[in-house]
Design goal:
This protein is α+β, with helices and mostly antiparallel strands. The chain folds into two domains: about 5-15 and about 165-264, no CATH class; about 20-125, no CATH class. About 55% of the residues lie in helices and about 10% in strands. The protein is built from twelve helices and four strands. It has a four-stranded mixed β-sheet with strand order 1-2-4-3. β1 (about 65) and β2 (about 70-80) form a beta hairpin. The longest helix has 20 residues, at about 160-180. The two termini are about 20 Å apart. About 30% of the residues are buried.
Length: about 260
């Protein structure tokens, strides 16, 4: 097992996650409630083509924030309904307006929706997503999620997806760790241990290790109660799967640990 000292050496204050302002993320609650209450009607309006989304007038220029260069952004919220698509949402920055595209076929609960909103707004803030020269140079790293393991690894490790995945993940870990009270040190040690073991033992091994089961609650926004256990474990396993993909590239894993250390 990698020593604690070795892990701590990799953690510095030089790397930071991309932070979407909390007041911007909070606007997702109103959007979710409206969509959830009118889901079937919106599905009929949305169609199955994300290139031609339905944008309700109330969601035109809905999210207002700044990109990483300090430029003002106005992001509309559009909807489509395609159960065969690769995922729950997309960020379209190619047209005359920025549109966060929500796939109604994958609408679940608000916690999941909030993570999705944060992920896509990181893309909106990221100059790499808009720079066609950068995009062309590294486009072979993959831009679409897939059921193929190798393609999914390229997707998770691509520079723009790495930024978008680490933001909500590290924010959840940071917030939940702060809420552990007198158990904080124990949870912190478990996190350090699991991130070491992922790199040396693999994801399947750590997920089967009973000592790491309590960490499932660290990877979710859901309330820590029995009826949420299955959902929390599913989130835990999905996040561990992404982390093990980053662990196959030492420089990328080091970057993840630095970002985590900055927030914890």
């Amino acid at each position: 097992m990698i020593k604690l000292a070795d892990i701590l050496k990799e953690i510095s204050l030089e790397e930071k996650i991309v932070k979407v302002p909390q007041e911007v993320i909070a606007k997702g609650k109103e959007a979710f409630n409206y969509i959830d209450s009118n889901l079937e009607k919106l599905k009929s309006k949305a169609g199955d083509n994300y290139d031609a989304p339905y944008v309700d007038p109330k969601f035109k220029d809905y999210f207002k924030l700044k990109d990483l260069k300090g430029n003002d952004l106005s992001v509309s919220l559009g909807m489509y309904n395609d159960p065969k698509d690769a995922g729950a949402a997309r960020m379209d920055t190619r047209g005359t307006e920025d549109i966060l595209l929500v796939n109604l076929a994958f609408l679940r609960d608000y916690d999941d929706f909030e993570d999705t909103i944060e992920h896509e707004l990181v893309h909106a803030m990221d100059p790499k997503v808009r720079d066609m020269h950068i995009h062309a140079k590294i486009s072979d790293k993959g831009t679409e999620p897939s059921s193929d393991d190798a393609t999914m690894t390229k997707y998770a490790k691509s520079p723009w997806e790495f930024d978008a995945f680490t933001a909500p993940l590290i924010n959840k870990l940071s917030k939940n760790l702060k809420n552990t009270g007198t158990n904080r040190k124990a949870y912190q040690q478990l996190l350090i241990s699991i991130f070491s073991d992922i790199r040396t033992k693999g994801a399947d091994t750590v997920l089967q290790d009973d000592k790491y089961a309590p960490l499932a609650w660290m990877f979710t926004k859901k309330e820590w109660k029995e009826e949420n256990w299955d959902a929390a474990w599913t989130e835990f396993a999905a996040e561990i799967d992404k982390i093990r993909r980053w662990a196959t590239k030492p420089t990328l894993y080091k970057q993840f640990l630095k970002r985590l250390g900055t927030e914890l």
